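Q: A reviewer asked whether we had any structural model of the full assembly, not just the individual parts. We don't, so I'm hoping you can provide one. Inputs are below.
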Amino acid sequence: MADTVLFEFLHTEMVAELWAHDPDPGPGVSAGSRGEEAGSTTGQKMSLSVLEGMGFRVGQALGERLPRETLAFREELDVLKFLCKDLWVAVFQKQMDSLRTNHQGTYVLQDNSFPLLLPMASGLQYLEEAPKFLAFTCGLLRGALCTLGIESVVTASVAALPVCKFQVVIPKS
Amino acid sequence: MADTVLFEFLHTEMVAELWAHDPDPGPGVSAGSRGEEAGSTTGQKMSLSVLEGMGFRVGQALGERLPRETLAFREELDVLKFLCKDLWVAVFQKQMDSLRTNHQGTYVLQDNSFPLLLPMASGLQYLEEAPKFLAFTCGLLRGALCTLGIESVVTASVAALPVCKFQVVIPKS
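A: Here is a predicted structure for the entire assembly that you could use as a starting point for your response.
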């Protein structure tokens, strides 16, 4: 029945609830398509940060349930491939569409029809609403990576709905 | 992989987040095992109400995705049976354990191992924490019933973890 959409419905409600409680919604999001940097007011930044934190903890928890052999990944790239395939299927019932890297710790994961953006009409007019639908997933990636022993910074950007790029930067240790 | 637990992780985070933002957490929940009535402070009551509201809207949305023939249920009892079986499986991957009614609009749905209570240790010492893990699901049932054309009042009670009873009262029309 409807089990595969349960997560999406719940995510939508969570975003709506956090925005409803936003102490200072301001006149509208002024920033463009950058995930974490968008949201011009303190309240919106806090809501994004709360969503990212929730995603992080869910990602950590999901990471802890991974099969044991997964935890033996040695190559960073293997871990990223795992996220693009197994994690994405577990959460969104589809694989990430592409993964690119500069081989210096920066990875770009592209989803050409990101499920959490699909309910929004395609086009430019809703682009400024996108960041709040990306923060949770940025946290999810960061949390899963953390459980796999990799500290990272994850941001998201949208140039045209519903295409979404997640950038994972792993500082050299 | 971990997709079946995604909802549960997200629900846990949602409860934690709402309680963290509780403006007046007070000295502790003083009420006992009644679902909606527990939570002695205004802040906690508000958080329960927010969770119930989120559950209601998710329940409505799930209800709208039901197969069309479902909407043709004529008997109230059929609708309740449907919730106990199909809705419960969709959300919790298990059926409700029992359904009883007084044939006067009151139904008691019992889950002997309610998944959202399972992470808590069994025993009496955590009983007072239970209501916040039940409010969303009360709303979920009320929302699904609403989509199926039935107005109701749904409360939950726990006598011993993780056994949970949901009471659905349908006012005579």
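A: Points you may want to mention in the reply: Chain B touches chain A through 28 residues (CB under 8 Å). The mean pLDDT of chain B is 82.
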